[in-house]
Amino acid sequence: MTDQTRNVLKREYKEKTHPPGVFQIKNRQNGKVFLGSSLNIEGSLNAHEFMLSSNSHRNQAMQADYTQFGAEAFSFNVLDVVKIKDEPGFQIEHELQTLEQLWLDELKPFGELGYNLNNKIRQA
Q1: Do 9 and 55 meet the contact criterion of CB atoms below 8 Å apart?
Q2: How far apart are CA 19 and CA 41, in angstroms?
Q3: Is 100 exposed, middle or buried, given 0-12, 13-18 or 19+ CB atoms closer than 10 A?
Q4: What pLDDT is attached to residue 43?
Q5: How many angstroms separate the CA atoms of 110 and 34, rounded?
Q6: Phi (first) and psi of residue 38, to 5 degrees
Q7: Which CB contacts under 8 angstroms, 24+ apart, belong to 90-98?
């Protein structure tokens, strides 16, 4: 890859929009999920995947299962994206918080069902 190509790719990445929203990391072996949210979903999913693959994830239960079952047992999915509105008073943080609560209520990713330790999932 040439320096010029690398620079073009960097510029394109920086100019790309990074949507806010809610994501899940699912262990397909036992059905447990980790629910997260971010102002940059793709970046957060990449960070979680990297931490798990390098055995450095802060969620010890999920890291242990990832080590036991392997990468192929886990899926990384965007569940919902904040729809940006060009309206006075629109707040991304408020919209993201609402989506978080909806998904928390639906998936209940705690205890036997998931890896979340509490009902606060924001990573923004």
Answers
A1: no
A2: 6
A3: buried
A4: 94
A5: 9
A6: -160, 160
A7: 92/20, 92/39, 93/124, 95/20, 96/20, 96/21, 96/22, 96/37, 96/39, 96/122, 96/124, 97/122
- What is the rounded distance in angstroms from the CA atom of residue 3 to the CA atom of residue 91? 39
Rg (CA), the chain: 16
Calculate mean pLDDT across residues 2-29.
Answer: 81
To the question of pTM greater than 0.85 for the whole model, the response is: no
pLDDT tens digits, one per residue of 61-99: 999 999 999 999 999 999 999 998 888 888 888 999 899
For the chain, list the domains and their CATH numbers. Answer: 27-113 (3.40.1440)
